[in-house]
Design brief:
The complex is a heterodimer of chains A (113) and B (115). Chain A is mainly beta. Helices cover 0% and strands 53% of the residues of chain A. In chain B, 31% of the residues are buried. The chains are: A mainly beta (113), B mainly beta (115).
């Protein structure tokens, strides 16, 4: 069974640009969560999607947005990039929201210059 | 508010020895799940072990075991017979089993296994 996949794996952008990251969950998983990981702030929750609806949202500005498609694949978008957005963005999937374990993808490492 | 605390920023262990990574948590919910993840330098978070708040026995998965002490609100990870490949960051996490069902992660412990 294939694991969680994330594309691209590495990305370099400049300030002011926007970026879209993609996450394909494990087959049969309907919940997708996104996290930002930085050395200073650790692992911070961005948002969670289930059945194409955002169920939870972390404390991030509106420049961070996401969506989920009918096949459970998810994308997150960051507009007007700032230097502080440089981070490892991790996607995790689970079968359901309440009882199943989250499994993570390899992450997308975003560098903003 | 829910909280996870990992007080050991870094740990060293000799190859083939056992090591315990500490994790304490705080929650007022009676039902919750506790998880440990391993993050090698490559970045991917690898699920290691799960313990439910109502589980009577400590969870074990191969060389990993979770020392669950509910009254003390601790969920320490024990790695037996350490291997060089165990060198990584280890994160303790908790999921509340009501409300938002969000995961909360600790700050992690960096483990270095010495040959």
């Amino acid at each position: 069974k294939a694991g969680v996949t994330q594309t691209p794996r590495y990305l370099i952008k400049t300030r002011g640009q926007q970026v879209t990251l993609s996450c394909s969950p494990i087959s049969g998983h309907r919940s997708v969560s996104w996290y930002q990981q930085t050395p200073g702030q650790g692992l911070q929750f961005l948002f969670e999607y289930f059945s194409e609806t955002q169920r939870n949202k972390g404390n991030f500005p509106g420049r961070f947005s996401g969506r989920q498609f009918s096949n459970s694949r998810s994308e997150m978008n960051v507009s007007t990039l700032e230097l502080g957005d440089s981070a490892l963005y991790l996607c995790a999937s689970s079968r359901d929201r309440t009882t199943d374990t989250q499994y993570f993808g390899p992450g997308t490492r975003l560098t903003v210059l | 508010a829910q909280k996870i605390t990992q007080t050991q920023p870094g740990m060293f262990v000799q190859e083939k020895e056992a090591v315990t990574l500490d994790c304490t948590y705080d929650t007022s919910d009676p039902s919750y799940g506790l998880f440990w993840y391993k993050q090698p330098s490559s970045g991917e978070m690898i699920f290691l072990i799960y313990q439910g708040s109502y589980d009577q026995q400590n969870a074990t998965e191969g060389r990993y075991s979770l020392n669950f002490q509910k009254a003390r609100k601790s969920a320490n990870l024990v790695i037996s017979a350490s291997q060089l490949g165990d060198s990584a960051m280890y994160f303790c996490a908790m999921r509340q089993n009501s409300g938002t069902y969000k995961y909360i992660f600790g700050t992690g412990t960096r483990l270095k296994v010495l040959a």
